[in-house]
Amino acid sequence: MISRLRGVVVEVDGDSMVVDVNGVGYSVICTATLLRRLETGNEETLCVYTDVREDAIRLFGFDSHAERQMFLLLNKVSGLGPRSSVDVLSNVPIRDLLRAIGAGDIHALMSIKGVGRKKAERIVVELKDLVVSMVDDRSSGLRSMVTVERGSSERRDGPTGDAIAALEVLGFARKDAEVAVSKAIEGGCQSGEAGDLIREALRFV
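Predicted structure:
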């Protein structure tokens, strides 16, 4: 399975490109984020997913590892498929997509081109817990790296601190993350699990 390609861009056409790797040209279907930075003649390193079917082998290219990981999550949704997953990623920033899924915001997902109500509902039902778990896992090492300028007394420990760090992983400012988690707690979320706090806090960011 091909998961990475490094070569010279020889052609960009519509939603795909051709990259020359040691004399072999690979056709790659790309997300809009990746396509925006491609220029013919430049050497590029691509994160790639190989879709193997009985009648074809297709390569999908991504701008970053995070974008590829989001694609793999979307590709788990029944009825979505790799091409539709790329279309979703091409029409909404990863941060907004994660927030909508984590908060169960059907209407936000329906605003994405090509996503109707049924598809939006499937995305939430099948990915909500996976997204919260993924973000929670990514935040596990963050709390030890995040410093608070006003001193260690303002650090948050336990599930609250983990939930705040998880929201920072999504790209939210620490202040906004703290406010969202506080509102989740005030709203009645008293769970001892960071995942539950993250899920509720996403409603307030």
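Summary: The first helix runs from residue 32 to 37.
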